[in-house]
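Propose amino acids for all 151 sites.
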């Protein structure tokens, strides 16, 4: 008995194999998936932290100071809002500073949200290859942790 192989059958078989291989490569258990998912989760957590810092900055709980190496340092004032000045000009400057600090925090939150989306897409589409490196953050701003505060 002779088996006849047609080109159409080979094409269908090749296409089905390619779809099965792509589905297998995107399973959540893959090494790339775990690595990319970890990067996405790290950026998502950073975005949530910066969004929370923006809310605290609006209330006057944070301040931004320059560091000796040229970056800016977001400091938490023991989670107690600073007293708003009673002088109208000083109060206006205080409100402006709080709004500027909150805007910087929102900028950092937006950056980390974009990076989280980038790595999340890479985790779910591994056959597209490794995405390029993350661009540098828009601001040289670092947040102090709770343990950085001196009592």
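Proposal:
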């Amino acid at each position: 008995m002779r088996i006849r192989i047609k080109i159409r059958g080979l094409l269908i078989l090749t296409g089905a194999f390619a779809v099965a291989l792509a589905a297998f490569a995107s399973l959540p258990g893959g090494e790339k998936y775990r690595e990319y998912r970890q990067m996405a989760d790290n950026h998502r957590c950073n975005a949530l932290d910066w969004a929370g810092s923006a809310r605290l900055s609006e209330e006057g709980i944070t301040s931004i100071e320059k560091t000796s190496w040229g970056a800016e340092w977001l400091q938490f004032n023991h989670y107690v809002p600073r007293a708003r000045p009673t002088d109208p000009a000083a109060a206006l400057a205080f409100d402006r500073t709080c709004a500027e600090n909150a805007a910087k925090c929102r900028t950092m939150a937006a950056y980390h949200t974009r990076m989280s989306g980038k790595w999340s897409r890479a985790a779910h589409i591994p056959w597209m290859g490794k995405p390029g490196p993350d661009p540098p953050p828009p601001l040289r701003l670092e947040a102090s942790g709770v343990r950085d505060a001196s009592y």
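Strands lie at 62-66, 72-76, 141-143. Helices lie at 7-25, 31-58, 88-124.
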